[in-house]
Design a protein that fits this description.
Layout (H helix, E strand, L loop, with lengths): L1 E9 L2 E9 L30 E5 L13 E6 L4 E6 L12 H8 L8 E3 L22 E3 H9 L4 H9 L4 H14 L22 H12 L2 H7 L3 E6 L2 E6 L3 H4 L10 E9 L3 E10 L2 E8 L8 H15 L4 E2 L2 E2 L3 H22 L38 H20 L5
Antiparallel strand pairs: 1-2, 3-5, 3-13, 4-5, 4-12, 5-14, 6-7, 8-9, 10-11, 11-12
Helix pairs in contact: 1-4, 1-5, 2-3, 9-10
């Protein structure tokens, strides 16, 4: 028999119990019951380390060589981070911060609502800002303003929408609260449109968090994946194009198959920044890239392309090195995994194996003059207990211990 630890969670903490589990005897007539897969959890401090973090399995493709100061590749469905470089490094986000702005303000007004712009709503726009062309006294649908935000990265549209949601300072506070609620601890909001401001930073990790959250919202997804739209100008309108070249294929940048969006940005302080989502088959990835150091102004798109290609090819061939989910949610999942493993052990049978029957005379298998003797198939609930369950209980216990030992990044 094997003595393995399993964890039972209690309000006061986690206690480690020793369970004595019988080892099932292999037999041609015994069929092990299937065991649901148990998710593994990684050291939450892994992404705090500098440099590239990846845990490749056999057959995993090599990571591309990219020049960005910071980047993240993650599964948008599970939140698992497949690989990253300096994921929590604080850097200016430029207009990729508009993803957080949208997550905060988008649910507040229906897209068909109309708003007449006041002069004071267009004050304070930073010099050199990207604009969609919002004019004082003109009436716009909220959906028009959001097209101006996502396609043209219009800081004028951001200012108007912020005014509709409590004003610039209130919007700053709301965005900060939203970031914390999502588990994004690196982001400090000073200017909701992403314009360079002292102390304003985010990280590749946080941008991936915002991108993943946006992809779970149909409205957000619809706006960020729109390539072209008409923007009203009184009695007429003009066309606007999404400035995300991977989405439109503009300026010689080839479109990426399956690209959903999400948002690009540029300022002199931030350099080029980008957060994108792409779908291939049943898998959706989110990739964030901050400030490539080589390759010119469009390098951010090509480096994101390489990381997306790697992420799709690496599916099932790497272990996650982190999670985009809030720390509390991950800790709760870890505890749930431990509880599930313990329940499976409980259902599997008694904790102490029954005493073995006395052995009879030895008889060589396949001896001449008789058929090979087959061992009797084990009976009872413990017979079908798979060895994988033992490892699952141990892995779950170890995972929870790591979370309690190293803690989490706040929240």
């Amino acid at each position: 028999m094997i003595v393995m630890p399993a964890v039972r969670h209690a309000a006061a903490g986690a206690a480690v119990l020793l369970l004595v589990l019988p080892v099932p005897t292999a037999s041609a007539s015994s069929v092990a019951e299937p065991t649901p897969p148990v998710r593994s959890f990684v050291d939450p401090a892994r992404l705090d380390r500098s440099g590239t973090q990846v845990e490749a399995l056999r057959g995993a493709p090599g990571l591309p060589s990219v020049s960005a100061l910071s980047w993240v590749v993650a599964d948008a469905t599970t939140g698992e981070v497949l690989a990253a470089r300096d994921a929590h490094r604080p850097l200016p986000p430029a207009s990729t911060l508009k993803t957080l702005f949208a997550l905060t303000a988008l649910p507040r007004h229906d897209g068909g609502e109309r708003h007449t712009v006041k002069d004071e709503e267009l004050t304070g726009i930073g010099e050199g800002s990207s604009l969609v062309g919002v004019k004082e006294g003109y009436t716009y649908k909220v959906s028009d303003l959001w097209n101006g935000v996502f396609l043209s990265s219009g800081n004028d549209a951001v200012h108007v929408l912020a005014a509709m949601n409590g004003g610039w300072e209130s919007m700053t506070r709301q965005m900060q609260e939203k970031a914390r609620a999502l588990g994004a601890r690196d982001t400090h909001v000073v200017s909701p449109d992403g314009y360079d401001a002292p102390g304003q930073v985010s990280s590749a990790y946080d941008l991936a968090v915002f991108g993943r959250a946006g992809l779970q919202d149909p409205q957000f997804t619809r706006y960020c994946s729109t390539r072209y739209a008409d923007f009203p100008a009184g009695s007429w309108s003009y066309g606007i194009a999404n400035t995300n070249r991977l989405l439109t294929g503009a300026d010689g940048v080839a479109r990426y198959p399956g690209l959903i969006g999400i948002k690009n940005g540029y300022t002199s302080g931030a350099g080029n920044t980008l957060v994108v989502g792409a779908r291939r088959g049943a898998r959706t990835l989110v990739v964030s890239v901050m400030n490539p150091q080589g390759g010119g102004g469009f390098a951010v798109y090509e480096e994101a392309r390489e990381l997306l290609d790697w992420g799709f090819e690496a599916a099932g061939r790497v272990r996650p090195v982190g999670s985009l989910k809030p720390a509390k949610a991950v800790r709760k999942e870890a505890a749930g995994t431990v509880h599930a493993a313990a329940r499976q052990v409980d259902r599997a049978g008694p904790e102490v194996a029954p005493a073995a029957a006395p052995a009879g005379p030895a008889r060589p298998v396949g001896a001449v003059g008789g058929a090979p003797r087959r061992e009797a198939a084990p009976s009872g609930r413990t017979a079908g207990l798979p060895l994988a369950l033992v490892g699952a209980a141990l892995g779950a216990a170890l995972s929870l211990w790591l979370w309690r030992r190293f803690g989490a990044r706040g929240n």
